[in-house]
Amino acid sequence: MQDARRAGIAIVAMVRSSDNLTTRALRIIPDRLIVHNEIIQNEASSLYGMKAERITVVGIPHYDKYFRGPTVPRESFFRKIGLDPRKKLVIYFPICDYRMRENVVDRMVIETLANLDANVVVRFPPAESVTIAGLVKPPAMIFDRPGYVFDERIYGNRELTPEDDERLLHLLAYCDLVVAGPSTAAIDAALFDKPLLLVDFYPTTLAEAEKIYEYGTEHFSPILASGGARRAKSRDEFLSRLHEYLTHPELDHAGRARIVEEQCWRADGRSSQRVVAELLAALGHEGA
């Protein structure tokens, strides 16, 4: 972007995630900015002084394929990856080490979920560490570790494959509950109208600075305010919410719809087309 600016070449940039403008600094102001939703549009204006006419809201392009829905029937998919089609499915997206001074949560949650009479899939992040040292994987639980590894010697040197994303699509479509921390998994769950239980409890008493920090950030506050997710602050509350959601998945449907409306802007599967239209317009091909 710096080289382009010096060379007089127009710059079209895109904000890729909801936290990019508040937890990071936009060091170069592009000529045009593509964003997912009006929340990020307002951040670009209020925090960086960008004029509204230079910002285009398109929705979330990555979700376009999700509106197609699953291509493999539930029973076939479950059997293919080793799940019991007779039981419900819970997906756990780990907190990850970087969200805490010391990750004491992920192991505790996995051990708690292992006692459920349900299928449990732990969907690890492709490029972040999750400390569960010494944990023996429960026999009825699947550890899904997505990502193509480019270099085993360099942690995080990996990327999701189309097959990884296709598997996630099917897991989300067929699951009955999503358990997660303050991550984009919250939007994933809402998009598929799946109950979302947020983990915010700990095995020992911790100071606030040692807890999961992102619950207090600006980008996650709309999720908490939506009414579309429940935040468990004790193990008893966590277990109670688990069983409540598995029994009544319709709970908090309106709040999840609000998350989709605010975060996805247009849930119509055409976000990628809007990105292409913006790029063509920048090239002077309006209406192409």
User: Average pLDDT value?
Assistant: 94
- The number of distinct structural domains comes to 2
CATH superfamily of the largest domain: Glycogen Phosphorylase B
Radius of gyration: 20 Å
Beta-strand portion reads: 5-15%
Largest sheet strand order: 6-5-4-9-10-11
CATH topology of the largest domain: Rossmann fold
Strand and helix order:
HEEHEHEHEEEEHEHEHEHHH
Structural class: alpha/beta
Helix content: 25-40%
User: Tell me, what is the CATH class of the largest domain?
Assistant: Alpha Beta
Question: Which second-level CATH architecture of the largest domain applies?
Answer: 3-Layer(aba) Sandwich
Number of helices: 10
Total count of strands: 11
What's the shape? globular
Give an overview of the whole structure.
By secondary structure, the chain is of the alpha/beta class. The protein is built from 10 helices and 11 strands. The strands form 3 sheets. A 6-stranded parallel β-sheet has the order 6-5-4-9-10-11, sandwiched between helices. Strands 1-2-3 form a 3-stranded parallel β-sheet, sandwiched between helices. β7 and β8 form a beta hairpin. α6 crosses α9. It is globular, with a radius of gyration of 20 Å. The model has no long low-confidence stretch (mean pLDDT 94).
